[in-house]
Automatic annotation (TrEMBL), chains A, B:
It holds the Pfam family NUDIX. This is NUDIX hydrolase. It comes from the Bacteria. It comes from Sphingomonas naasensis. Residues 169-229 form the NrtR DNA-binding winged helix domain. Keywords: Hydrolase.
DNA sequence: TAAATAGTGTCTTTTAGACATTATAAG
DNA sequence: CTTATAATGTCTAAAAGACACTATTTA
């Protein structure tokens, strides 16, 4: 890249620049299904459609910092798993102006999901299908704004691709969890039922799960043992 | 995101916006090693350092279109494997101004590498280590500009992560290739030697390789059979 | 004691690593 | 006939799917 190109870009009005935003895909388990937290648009364009929480990237703010700020402002938390997902830059993705968005994937525990929903700023929508579509808890289909179906599909696919060899499933669970709950997460993300003994053995053979010796409390049947992740090494 | 935020952003001088560029990581095999194509900076800042080819994203140009344009302009080709890699947006990554770059990974065949080098616009640099460092063919270490070592490391890691389950290795090979050449690509990318019979069986059992019946020509020993990829299904 | 889920044992198939052996070309 | 590499066979170990079975809690 030549310095002349940079220099002429020093004058912000000489050449039009795209706006840059960060959008958050907040994913977690809700009612036993994989769900995203969405905001309802009440202004045109696309009023009535459901959108990802997002905002502009500040001129003195890194992309990661912008994602963290939005996580606090839109979902009211600051300790979720957060990773950059993909950048979307189709020319007409927003009818108002040229906007390039860097999408981030945030993984929430059930208690974080519940707290964000209680705050009233976001609503949970179950995700299914390919490409992904969103459904409200009562089963109604929720229309998605802009290219957000595409973004949600890529987020779901990222989760599917990484769940077998990474620790991301645990970001969707409390610190102590049963093997059944862990299997429920895997099945919801992958969209297929899994073999129980095989799943159990695969998880335990990995050597990362530590039995706590305590058991779940509220079950109306034999209670399962609670495990925690050994994130020390 | 509120419409007020969008509206105030309609005036480009009201709020400073970052510049947006696309940088290309052009990877291929060179002298039996994994190598990137770099440009030497002859102007400050970082004069004498080696940088990825890149350029601004046009206001009416998608990210993918900008990457394709740069592939043509900087490497003189338009049929390489091209995929978005990651976006880099640290506030001080470029000392001149705030620049967010969307990095793309391009995979080149040996003949494309050679043609780009002959054009004189880029130079091949072998990649090794973690984080990646660059070396010229004569063994000299090449200092990398800005955050480009970080970008190259992420490109190399993407290649490593996908080579076992995707077709990207074939993007680095001509249409017809020997199993030894395919193994050389895997070994260069992964940085470890592989077992020959096991590698051969794994590739053939996948059912994607088609024996052509012809053999390599220039060998001074028993010539190996040439295969091609079945990219039909 | 019935119901429901937790948890285990075992068989089989698949996959992959290691290593020895045979085959075929050039010089 | 020597040398170098191609190509194959076989043994073994680890991983994963399927399924039957036992164990333990609540109601």
């Amino acid at each position: 890249m030549t310095d002349e190109a940079f220099l002429r870009d020093y004058d912000p009005s000489a050449f039009a620049r795209p706006s840059v935003t960060v959008d958050l895909v907040l994913l977690g388990m809700h009612d036993g299904q994989l769900a995203a937290l969405l905001m309802r648009r009440d202004q045109p364009p696309q009023a009535g459609c459901w959108a990802l929480p997002g905002g502009f990237v500040g001129i003195d703010e890194s992309l990661d910092a912008a994602a963290l700020r939005l996580l606090r402002d839109k979902a009211g938390m600051d300790d979720a798993h957060l990773e950059q997902l993909y950048s979307f830059g189709a020319v007409d993705r927003d009818p108002r102006m040229r906007v390039i968005t860097i999408a981030y994937l945030a993984l929430l525990r059930a208690d974080q999901m519940a707290a964000a929903i209680r705050s009233g700023r976001v609503t949970a929508a179950a995700l299914a299908g390919d490409p992904v579509s969103a459904r409200s808890p009562d089963g109604a289909s929720l229309p998605l704004a802009f290219d957000h179906a595409q973004i949600l599909t890529r987020a779901r696919d990222r989760l599917r691709g990484k769940i077998d060899y990474s620790d991301i499933a645990f970001a969707l669970l409390p610190a102590r969890f049963t093997l059944r709950a862990l299997q429920d997460v895997h099945e919801a993300v992958l969209g297929v039922p899994l073999n129980k003994p095989g799943f159990r053995r695969r998880m335990l053979d990995r050597g990362r799960l530590i039995a706590t010796g305590t058991r779940e409390a509220d079950a109306s049947h034999r209670p399962a043992e609670l495990f925690r992740l050994n994130d020390g090494d």
